[in-house]
């Protein structure tokens, strides 16, 4: 059970890092501020690395949807919490919907922990 959870934990950490790099990108003022620019560069690289590692065990479409959904939800949540973006009950409801959909993808039975197979034509022809 733990072994199958590790790719999902890596994906979750990668999604959190996506929210960090998105926020740092906004704070970098077009890459003119060194610290937010550095935070952006490091967390973007780590986020992509984690996504790449997780897709070894989670189908690409599922992993990408979860990564983007959680990252976007955290980015908007942080922006509302810090006053960068106005708070709205409807916004919170829709963000909760994104998170629920990401959790639903994890909860789907079967196939969620195996990578998508290669197309038969490409592997048979040796391309």
Automatic annotation (TrEMBL):
<dbReference type="GO" id="GO:0022857">
    <property type="term" value="F:transmembrane transporter activity"/>
</dbReference>
<dbReference type="InterPro" id="IPR000390">
    <property type="entry name" value="Small_drug/metabolite_transptr"/>
</dbReference>
<dbReference type="GO" id="GO:0005886">
    <property type="term" value="C:plasma membrane"/>
</dbReference>
<dbReference type="InterPro" id="IPR037185">
    <property type="entry name" value="EmrE-like"/>
</dbReference>
<keyword id="KW-0812">Transmembrane</keyword>
<keyword id="KW-0813">Transport</keyword>
<feature type="transmembrane region" description="Helical">
    <location>
        <begin position="62"/>
        <end position="81"/>
    </location>
</feature>
<keyword id="KW-1003">Cell membrane</keyword>
<protein>
    <submittedName>
        <fullName>Small Multidrug Resistance family protein</fullName>
    </submittedName>
</protein>
<dbReference type="Pfam" id="PF00893">
    <property type="entry name" value="Multi_Drug_Res"/>
</dbReference>
<feature type="transmembrane region" description="Helical">
    <location>
        <begin position="38"/>
        <end position="55"/>
    </location>
</feature>
<keyword id="KW-0472">Membrane</keyword>
<comment type="similarity">
    <text>Belongs to the drug/metabolite transporter (DMT) superfamily. Small multidrug resistance (SMR) (TC 2.A.7.1) family.</text>
</comment>
<dbReference type="InterPro" id="IPR045324">
    <property type="entry name" value="Small_multidrug_res"/>
</dbReference>
<keyword id="KW-1133">Transmembrane helix</keyword>
């Amino acid at each position: 059970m733990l072994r199958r959870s590790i790719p999902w934990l890596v994906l979750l950490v990668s999604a959190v890092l996506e929210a960090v790099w998105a926020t740092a990108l906004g704070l970098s003022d077009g890459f003119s501020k060194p610290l937010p620019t550095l935070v952006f560069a490091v967390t973007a690289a780590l986020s992509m690395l984690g996504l790449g590692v997780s897709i070894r065990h989670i189908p690409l479409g599922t992993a990408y949807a979860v990564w983007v959904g959680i990252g976007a939800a955290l980015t908007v949540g942080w922006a509302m919490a810090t006053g960068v973006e106005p708070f709205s009950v409807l916004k919170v409801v829709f963000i909760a919907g994104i998170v629920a959909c990401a959790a639903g993808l994890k909860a789907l039975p079967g196939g969620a922990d195996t990578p998508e197979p290669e197309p038969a034509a490409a592997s048979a022809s040796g391309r």
